[in-house]
Design brief:
Blueprint: H1 15-30, E1 35-41, E2 44-50, E3 55-60, H2 65-75, E4 81-86, H3 94-102
Helix pairs in contact: 1-3
Length: 108
């Protein structure tokens, strides 16, 4: 179960993946958005869901376009937009990471 506005670490995610998800969660909450993490959909768990803008975000480190397209199909839900955040070239610095992730946020 995904609790509202509660950051959850999925069992096998890497430190870098968790930091990217945490950063996205922080930025969305700072904007006053209602956020879920590790939200259950029929075909898996979506990293972050912004219920305010009805946007699902998936943090993805694989650079393959096929992987990204497969994730979009896997998580497709009526009424939701899906944003894949490609993180293979995401900066390590936390402030630069926030700037990088911020460019993918749907403002609504």
């Amino acid at each position: 179960m995904s609790w509202p506005n509660h950051l959850t670490k999925f069992c096998n995610e890497s430190y870098r993946h968790f930091m990217a998800k945490s950063c996205l969660f922080y930025l969305l909450r700072k904007m006053g958005h209602d956020v879920r993490t590790e939200w259950t959909v029929p075909n898996g768990y979506v990293d972050v869901v912004d219920m305010t803008t009805m946007t699902m975000y998936e943090i993805e480190f694989a650079s393959s376009l096929n992987v990204r397209n497969r994730k979009i199909e896997q998580y497709r839900q009526p009424g939701f937009e899906i944003i894949i955040i490609p993180c293979s070239k995401m900066p390590d610095d936390i402030d630069a990471m926030a700037e990088y992730i911020e460019q993918y946020i749907v403002l609504g």
